[in-house]
Amino acid sequence: MAEQTKPVDDTPISPARPGASDRKNSLENHLLHRPAREELVEKNILPSSHAAPSLQAQQKELEKHMRADSLNDKISHRPTPETLIKDGVLHEDPRSADEKYEEAIEEEYAKREGATHLPAKAPEDWCTCRPAVCDHKLTSTHVR
């Protein structure tokens, strides 16, 4: 004979509060419509691992260490910049680090100002009223 399921307990959650049954019905409704495990895995809400929950943290930590080891191995076999320059992959930049930094700052200012072009390399006597955007010579009205 088929086993009958027991009805859900209808005792109120809090007899002193009216509307407690509404809360209970709301919870039951949400539980009936909760997404399946596969859907939660697809949305990266749950891990795809089938390991016991007590082991999942250790599994995640192990995967992290394995990725780090793999990256360290790849980095250790990476060619040096000198080798890449010798092979013609990289080209040596004759500018000093300060010049490169200054140019990067000017490019960033230009992006923020909405400039469509950048001056090639500003001479020392160009104005600094709007760095990297203003490309005219200093006059008495410009700030240096």
Automatic annotation (TrEMBL):
<feature type="compositionally biased region" description="Basic and acidic residues">
    <location>
        <begin position="60"/>
        <end position="98"/>
    </location>
</feature>
<dbReference type="InterPro" id="IPR043451">
    <property type="entry name" value="Myocardin-like"/>
</dbReference>
<dbReference type="GO" id="GO:0003713">
    <property type="term" value="F:transcription coactivator activity"/>
</dbReference>
<protein>
    <submittedName>
        <fullName>Myocardin-related transcription factor B like protein</fullName>
    </submittedName>
</protein>
<dbReference type="GO" id="GO:0005634">
    <property type="term" value="C:nucleus"/>
</dbReference>
<dbReference type="InterPro" id="IPR004018">
    <property type="entry name" value="RPEL_repeat"/>
</dbReference>
<feature type="repeat" description="RPEL">
    <location>
        <begin position="25"/>
        <end position="50"/>
    </location>
</feature>
<dbReference type="Pfam" id="PF02755">
    <property type="entry name" value="RPEL"/>
</dbReference>
<feature type="repeat" description="RPEL">
    <location>
        <begin position="69"/>
        <end position="94"/>
    </location>
</feature>
<keyword id="KW-0677">Repeat</keyword>
<keyword id="KW-0539">Nucleus</keyword>
<dbReference type="GO" id="GO:0045944">
    <property type="term" value="P:positive regulation of transcription by RNA polymerase II"/>
</dbReference>
<feature type="region of interest" description="Disordered">
    <location>
        <begin position="1"/>
        <end position="98"/>
    </location>
</feature>
<feature type="compositionally biased region" description="Basic and acidic residues">
    <location>
        <begin position="20"/>
        <end position="42"/>
    </location>
</feature>
